[in-house]
Amino acid sequence: MKRILTSFSEAVADIEDGATLMVGGFGLVGIPENLIIALVEKGVKDLTVISNNCGIDDWGLGLLLKKKQIKKVIGSYVGENDEFERQLLAGELEVELTPQGTLAEKIRAGGAGIPAFYTPAGVGTPIAEGREVRTFKGKKYLLEDALTADFSLIYAKKADRMGNLIYQKTTRNFNPIMAAAGKVTIAEVEEIVQIGELEPDFIHSPGIYIQRMIEGVQQKRIERLTTA
Predict the structure, then answer these.
(1) Which residues pair with 213 in a beta bridge?
(2) Most CB atoms closer than 10 Å: which of 48, 104, 163, 194?
(3) What is the end-to-end Cα distance of the chain in Å, rounded?
(4) pLDDT by position in tens, the chain (length 228)
(5) What SS3 class is residue 187?
(6) Cβ contacts of residue 158 below 8 Å, gap of 6+?
(7) Using CA atoms in the order 110, 111, 113, 115, what is the torsion angle rounded to 10 degrees?
(8) Smallest Cα–Cα separation from 10: which of 37, 34, 38?
């Protein structure tokens, strides 16, 4: 049985200033929105956040940015957040931009216990400056270190009481690999069912990776609404 909490503030209670967090999602899809709100309310600061992007100005990780609770972002896409751009250009935010596939593999490798790997992505660009480059079979590859985090905050559609998770459609994005790469993984789940109710063949993240769960209702805001 996993630790199942009833309060989002309790779920993030031991996340302290200066912590490194992985936060699942792509845009606003599959983000642990209630856990993020709990961090905003807690007022924790100087966070290093590893996430594909930083949400939008008024939702998701954008809420933490607005309160200047994030010190550094390691991500791959920043195009939907004006406050992110402002803080970056003003020198108020440290940003480490990484090709999206490389970011995913850095997280996956961290969860698998692989300390580093070589990739052709970034060779011959500013990303490779001052970094180790090796040649394999006549092709150059850049050494990339794996990523892990103090806490991973993820979202899932359904879980059982052992912590086995199922993600829905595109919410599966970064959540499974981040679940494995956090020292403590906290899952925000829409529905927690009894042991045996989930079909084993459809489980995406085994419960061994999950330390805490909390059931909650999400707003699921639309990132960019286009109407005819």
Answers:
(1) 4, 187
(2) 163
(3) 49
(4) 679 999 999 999 999 999 999 999 998 999 999 999 999 999 999 999 999 999 899 999 999 999 999 999 999 988 778 999 999 999 999 999 999 999 999 999 999 999 999 999 999 999 899 999 999 999 999 999 999 999 999 999 999 999 999 999 999 999 999 999 999 999 999 999 999 999 999 999 999 999 999 999 988 888 877 887
(5) strand
(6) 165, 166, 189, 190, 191, 192, 193, 198
(7) -10
(8) 38
